[in-house]
Amino acid sequence: xxSVTSDEAYQDQILPHVSxxxxxxxxxxxxxxxxxxxxxxxxxxxADTIEDEPALSPSETLDFLQRFTAVVAGTxxxxxxxxxxxxxLTDRTLPTERDLVRNTERVINATARLxxxxxxxxxxxxxxxxxxxxxxxxxASLKGLARCSDLDDYCYYxxxxxxxxxxxxxxxxxxxxxxxxxxxxxxxxxFAQGLQMTxxxxxxxxxxxxxxxxxxxxxxxxxxxxxxxxxxxPFDARYGAGFRELVGVAHAHLRNALEYTLLIPPKEEGIxxxxxxxxxxxxxxxxxxxxxxxxxxxxxxKITRRAVAMTRLLANAAVRHDWILRRLFAQAARxxxxxxxTAVHPSRQARTAAGESEMAGDSSxxxxxxxxxxxxxGT
Length: 379
Hints:
By secondary structure, the protein is mainly α. It has two domains: 1-116, no CATH class; 139-379, Orthogonal Bundle (Farnesyl Diphosphate Synthase). It has 18 helices and two strands. The chain has helices at 3-18, 20-25, 31-52, 58-73, 78-88, 95-102, 104-112, 116-137, 148-173, 175-178, 181-202, 204-209, 217-221, 237-262, 269-291, 305-318, 322-332, 353-359; strands at 340-349, 366-373. The longest helix has 26 residues, at 148-173. It is globular, with a radius of gyration of 20 Å. The chain starts with a helix and ends in a 6-residue tail after the last strand.
């Protein structure tokens, strides 16, 4: 097997072991996108592995992320970084993630063979992610994030930049999609925030076991709750009320995710399936969370394999029909609280102005400014 085939085969082999969801959705993409999105996801996963390693101090995490940014940019070799990072990883890092770190060079090699626009989109995403994530690690604690806007910023750097990257990749792939670039950019980060917030809510107790909370204290202060003192048992109804507000916020972002998907031309069935499967699984997870507010572990609100299969089946059957997709979403989201999440800037500049101007010297094309109103506005 030659090196090119080996690098791409490695990516396909490791993907199911580091993400079951993306292992399902990426193969739905057309061949012109599949390898680019696989490489992008694996690079982001390496960045996540650096951030999540508890043995690294915040300053060490920052150093490794900066080194990784240089590797992705092509200004530093991958092998020394992979070796040094591997030496610092503990048993808290999964063996498959350690394997991915050890094979960083393969992912970099596969990425280097992509088109110029694809590489630029991926590099921007990784740079912003590695710039933003350490800002939150320095202050991460059981006290949570101070404000709702901090949660927005956190979700932007760990997920929103991925939504923007995917938009760039989709638009580069298809001139028909590119005609909707402006509208897609309005909700790209919101789409990703919906998925990220669903994961944050599902994993809230696992995160707390690691001494971290990504919930905004601002929401819970209104209910007289101090996040630093929260326990899974006994159940505190005041905490549950604040938590349900955040379910409503995630729901609103997922509604934006559906609007994003419907901006993709119906003939691009693979890209639509890629989006729809993720949205469907997230909505069903949110519904389980909302119906079981006393859950104490993510496994208790995990959707069944049957639900996964049904989501895929229904999305595939309706993939070209917007009105049916809207009806399916409404049915899946029935009963969920709904907050107001209004996209107010069509250009991508508010979120990345500070970080991107430092790294790239040009923030004129990027980042959605999203204005949030947190609160239950209906069911």
